[in-house]
Specification:
CATH superfamily of chain A: P-loop containing nucleotide triphosphate hydrolases
Low-confidence stretches of chain B: 1-22
Pfam family, one (chain A): ABC_tran
Mean pLDDT of chain A: 94
Number of strands of chain B: 13
Order of helices and strands of chain B: EHEEEHEEHEHHHHEHEHEEHHHHEE
Strand order of the largest sheet of chain A: 6-7-8-3-9
Largest sheet of chain B: 8 strands, mixed
Strand order of the largest sheet of chain B: 7-8-9-4-10-11-13-12
GO molecular function (chain A): ATP binding; ATP hydrolysis activity
Family (chain A): Belongs to the ABC transporter superfamily.
CATH superfamily of chain B: P-loop containing nucleotide triphosphate hydrolases
CATH class of chain B: Alpha Beta
Structural class of chain A: alpha/beta
Strand content of chain A: 15-25%
CATH topology of chain B: Rossmann fold
Protein name (chain A): Peptide/nickel transport system ATP-binding protein
GO biological process, one term (chain A): transmembrane transport
Number of domains of chain A: 1
Oligomer: heterodimer
Low-confidence stretches of chain A: none
Largest interface: A-B, 34 and 30 residues
Helix content of chain A: 25-40%
Chain lengths: 213, 347
Amino acid sequence: MLRASGLVAGYERGKRVLDGVNVDLPRGGVRGLAGPSGCGKSTLARVLALLQRPWAGTVELDGSPIRGFRHAASRRQRTAVGVVFQQPRPAVDPRMPLRRVLEEPLRASGERGVPERVAELTELTGLDGELLGRFPHEVSDGQLQRACLARAIALRPRYLICDEMTGMLDASTTAALVRVVDEQVRVEGTGVLAISHDESLLHAWAGDDVIRL
Amino acid sequence: MTRGPVEAVLESPEEGGALLDGPSRPLLSLDDMSVRFALGGRRAGETVHAVTEARLELLPGQVLALVGESGCGKSVLASALLGLLPANAWLRGSARVGGADAEEDVELLSASEQVLAGRIRGRRIGLVPQSAATHLTPVRTARAQLAEAVRELRGHEDDGDVDELAGRVGLDPAALGHYPHELSGGMAQRVVVASALVGEPPVVIADEPTTGLDRPLVDRTMDLLGELANRSRGVLLITHDLSAARRVATHVAVMYASRVVETGPADEVFDRPWHPYTVGLLNALPERGFEPIPGHPPALTELDALEREWGCAFCRRRPDTPGVAACDGTPELVSYGTRSVAAHPPC
């Protein structure tokens, strides 16, 4: 379980974006998170992905409290939560071909069999293998988001935060990426938080398990 | 800006009585318009087929939604009409903008930068860009930016004009004193729509105007664009969001791998699609099955070979779609009354 209790969070000198938020994310399922623009969905995503330290409250990962965020989190904790953002372009280094985008987390964690895992991820996410040598500016948003999803699941995270993952994508690519994530839930037992403002998407993806912020 | 070599078709379309009737004269007509990019560097020799033989018409009162997957060429088409493509672009065919009151047609694809800047952009064609908040200059107020557009396009400076524009898009004139970062997403969207209207252009092109907005804001933006279409104005709406298109489009054109594969009145195309790609896109909607189209759109550099072999590029990706006519192998659009479709005649 990824559990956040009494979260208070915001940005420099700003007002509280999250004020006393509690969220539980169990393994092996998809939980939806809905809410209008500006309600704090993305801030919650950043805290749960251990990318932002909350002002108050606790985050617990499988029973252990998170003490450090960002680089201060332990590698084991950091790699236990994957995240995919709405916009793929700012989420990748424009100087890296897609192959390196996928390899980066594997190499950083000292994994063996990197080329094999890259091939597997390419297959899993339906990324066009011929595009692995291309740079981000040479591929479409849809293909780049597939690469971002591949990178997020490369280390088989126990939890995956999808923050408006399909917000910029067409209907077919949206449906395809949702299938990829569902497959991770089925095979790896991943716990997924699907964040979106699109109620019909969340209903089709998470059924009735949708929390509102 | 330099423009690539152009081989434009300059003959006027068939002279017919309908052309002289004010209301039915097309505001924008594309005839076999193609856009190619010659790649350089390590991919020298390759050619990107971004738009192939597009034929479309926009009439007054229409909201024509151009829909398709990311990377199918729809935004390139919009940029080409405004002369905003990079220098390695090649344009062929014809794209004419007509106007109200028998204003002379202008051939866009061969127009000089001087003509585009002085007579077209903002005056005959207004652009509502993607991501309103980043399109506005962050260091000046909304009012200052609208006033500049009024000065440029109307030749005078008048606060009354700015207030009137704000009123037309449902923006409180008091909000105009704010800087872009102080505006909500919806307000910023209204400011860019207002600035697209300054020159009273008969054609408004909205290029993915709702990306990243939440649903209520998408709906409001769509309604606003729908209201722009009137007796003397049409809207070309470029979007990947079928639900948004459905809300306001009177007509729809579906684009796949650089070609328009189906066109027609929006309700007919959405209710009874003829082309298997349209069927696939609609079935991918969360409320209609959530079923992705298998495979990928082809690389835009390989379309020539693909069409030579398969005729219809989509059938290579998905050979059999239940409920649509078998592929006849012709990639060109064929008209059937008010609708047209490529390769898969109505059945």
